[in-house]
Amino acid sequence: MIAARYLSRAVSLGLLLLGAAIILLPFFWMISLSLKPADEIFQDSIQLLPSHFEWNNYVVAFTKMPLWRFLINGIIVCCGILILQILIAVPCAYALTQRDFRGKAIVMGMVLAGLLVPYHVTAIPLFLGLSQLRLLDSYAALILPFIASVFGIFLFRQFFATIPKDLIDAARVDGLSEMSIVWRIAFPLAWPAATAFAVFSVVAHWNDLFWPLIAVSSPELATPPRGILFFRDVEAGSSFGPLMAATAIVTAPLVLVFLMAQRAFIQGLTMTGLKG
Amino acid sequence: MALSPRQLSAPHLKEAATTLSLAGPATLAMLVLIFIPSLLVAVFSFTDYQFGARSFHWVGLDNYVTLFTDRTGRRAVTNTLLYVAVVMPLSMIFSLVVALGVQSVSTWSPRLATMLRTAYFMPVAATLVAMATVFQMLLHPSLGLINQLIGLVGIPGQSWLSDRGLVLYTLAAIGIWETIGYNMVLFLAGLTAIPSQLYDAAEIDGANNWWDRFWTVTWPMLGPTTLFVLVVTATRSFRVFETVATLTQGGPAYASDTLVYAMYREGFVYFKAGYSSAITVVFFVAVLILTLTQVRIVEKKVHYR
């Protein structure tokens, strides 16, 4: 009986480890290739590890292409989007939960309807609008289309709804303006929502390729995924080691955040299952 | 709507101004960035508008007719459906099996279970375009690791990304790789929510092996989670774009063309805004149906049998 239990544990653990190995294989291969000398990358025989670590691939990745630029662009775009999303969504979510006003139901209806619209749908008119405003190929083109986060409003609204009315009223009696109640009382209380939302937003926009492909054409404005494709297409087949080094560097920030703050990270992405 | 004098009084105006300053920016942004563009896409889809052109003509349903009758248009539709039909069930089955496994490991080694969960979730945290370029190396027809590995067991190497019959399944496999971790987490949450008394009760009723308990307790209790996972995976697979754009650009010969990629190519490479809008509308309607199903599931939580 006990032997059978250990056997079944061993078998299921073995299968799980095999599956995990398959899932992790591309990560392992990325690191391995990024450290291999050029002549070991494509070989007739299987060679899992580099014969020696070719750190130069990482140097080349940073010197041959403006990889720093791509990373900084990614940070500018993600931070720009996140900050504007929060600045716009949080006061609206507060108004929807703690205030009564005409048209409240309409605004709430817009939020719910907005959740149904994937961002691909608005690409053509937004492209036209940005080109009319001569804003294409700029940071504004990368950031502005995403500042109306209905999901953000939805998420913050759920948190603000749990704040006791007495607390808000006490603040009003103390003479705080509504805007300062939003930012000094309500927003700090919704910190878990803010963390989850930040993870959701940054992961989505750091990894996005669709919109950067449409909105910008100059390599100097490329976000990390767009930059990887520039690098690959320019170097067409010559420097795979540095290409893999670049992919490792681009992937690293989010993976590291995930490994360090797993709970918050997983929550941020699964709470948001409604909108992906 | 006429306002009464009371509503026009100073305090009321001030209140209204406060509300406007709080909710106004968001409302305006939603209108300008979501709702007006969505309407415009629908309008464009009935025109032959091209980016940069000075005028356009109304063409009625022509763009939709093209999409569903033209060979390349139909390819995009059927490829997307096939992609969803492969990724959705397989990702669900694999992630359920992994979740059950991880949960049973967690009964005797929580640390090991956490490590497994981390490993399976890694692709969700990774940048898909970057990982796709790694897959390009792995899948290289003559010198890629995958062909070398299957060569060890005597299977001939395949042209994973340039074989017309194979390419869509290769992309689907990457799609499964990418979604298992996410679905596993959802299933794990569903599994932890099952009260353990139910298993005790099932055992008393004679369900003494794992298989019986799975079918009498786990599977029915997981019903809502399963449906939720199915719809989330379907919605996500419908949007497949990154892997197509990185690895195949719809090729060879449109064998891996999908709706969102076709929308991108027709609109932003060939500048056929009208046709691209029609593709967008079809894509939107499909996703809308799926999302509304999902909302119904979330709201009703389905029924426990």
UniProtKB/TrEMBL annotation, chain A:
Keywords on record: Cell membrane, Membrane, Sugar transport, Transmembrane, Transmembrane helix, Transport
Record carries keyword ATP-binding: no
A single BP term in Gene Ontology: transmembrane transport
GO CC annotations on file: plasma membrane
Primary location group: membrane
InterPro entries, A to Z: MetI-like, MetI-like_sf
Membrane topology: Multi-pass membrane protein
Superkingdom classification of source: Bacteria
TM segment ranges: 12-31, 70-94, 106-127, 139-160, 181-203, 240-261
Compartments it resides in: Cell membrane
Domain ABC transmembrane type-1: 71-261
Family according to the record: Belongs to the binding-protein-dependent transport system permease family.
PANTHER family registered for this protein in UniProt: ABC TRANSPORTER PERMEASE PROTEIN MG189-RELATED, ABC TRANSPORTER PERMEASE PROTEIN MG189-RELATED-RELATED
Protein name: Multiple sugar transport system permease protein
UniProtKB/TrEMBL annotation, chain B:
GO CC list: plasma membrane
Transmembrane spans: 20-46, 81-100, 120-139, 166-194, 214-232, 276-298
One of the GO BP terms on file: transmembrane transport
Record keyword NADP present: no
Record membrane topology: Multi-pass membrane protein
Domain ABC transmembrane type-1: from-to ranges: 77-294
Cell location: Cell membrane
Keywords annotated in UniProt: Cell membrane, Membrane, Sugar transport, Transmembrane, Transmembrane helix, Transport
Family matches, as Gene3D superfamilies: MetI-like
PROSITE patterns: ABC_TM1
Family stated for the protein in its record: Belongs to the binding-protein-dependent transport system permease family.
Protein name as annotated: Multiple sugar transport system permease protein
